[in-house]
Every structure is written in structure tokens, then in C-alpha cells.
Amino acid sequence: MLRGFLMLAAFFGFTGVGLGAFAAHGLKNRLSAEYLAIFHTGVTYQLVHALALLGIAALATQIPGRLATWAGASFAIGILLFSGSLYVLALTGISKLGIITPFGGLAFLVGWFCLGLAAWRLS
User: Fold this and answer.
1) Is 18 left (phi over 0), alpha (psi -120 to 50) or beta?
2) Where does the sequence pass through the membrane (predicted)?
């Protein structure tokens, strides 16, 4: 699990920085301020949860049970659904994709809840 979460953290961190730079330089003159802000929100949440995955990787061997695994998986799913839907929305303007975003937010909440529960159960 350590290797998997470290690889996910590295991947999402790398792509988050790349997408942020792409938006700042390549999309600045192509997207409206509203869509640029939506894209930026996706990047922000992706990078924050890439760091959360890094934390999960560091803690996964110290926390007994499966809650750390569930937290990491939920963070990864959240990035894909939340940030991914915001990227596609900003780039295509298809507003119906916004229905996916809350499911990603829910996955983030599940991840944080699992992490908190794992901490609560530590002796």
C-alpha cells in the first residue's frame, strides 16, 4: 500500500502542477475568468489531496486496519471525480458535468472521515 499511495501522490502532484501551469499560461487567454476559476479550483483540490495521499502513504504502515487504505482510495477517487469533472467542465463548457463534482467532494469527505476514525481508534 505504501508504494501505491506514494505513486498516486507523485502522479497527482506532478499532474496538478502541470495542469496549474497549463491553465496559468495556456488557458489564460482562452477561458473566461469564470471557467479559469473553476479549473483553478480543480487544481487546488488535486494538489491538497495529493499531499493527503502522501500523508496516508507515510501513516499507512502505522495505522492498523483498513481505514487508512479506505482514506487513500477515497482521496484518489475524489481527485478523479471532483477535479476531473471541473477540468472537463472548464474546457468544454458542458455544465451537466457539474453533477459529477459533488460525488468527488463526497469521496473527499469519506477519506477525511476514515482518517479521523483511524486516528480515533489508535490507542
Assistant:
1) alpha
2) 39-60, 67-91, 97-120
pTM of structure: 0.94
Give the residue among 101, 99, 67 at the shortest CA–CA distance from 87.
101
- Enter the C-alpha cell of residue 37: 476559476
CB contact set of 45 (below 8 Å; sequence gap of 6+): 78, 79, 82, 83, 86, 108
Tens of pLDDT along 79-94?
Answer: 999 999 999 999 999 9
Which cell goes with 106?
A: 463526497
Q: For residue 82, give the C-alpha cell.
A: 471532483
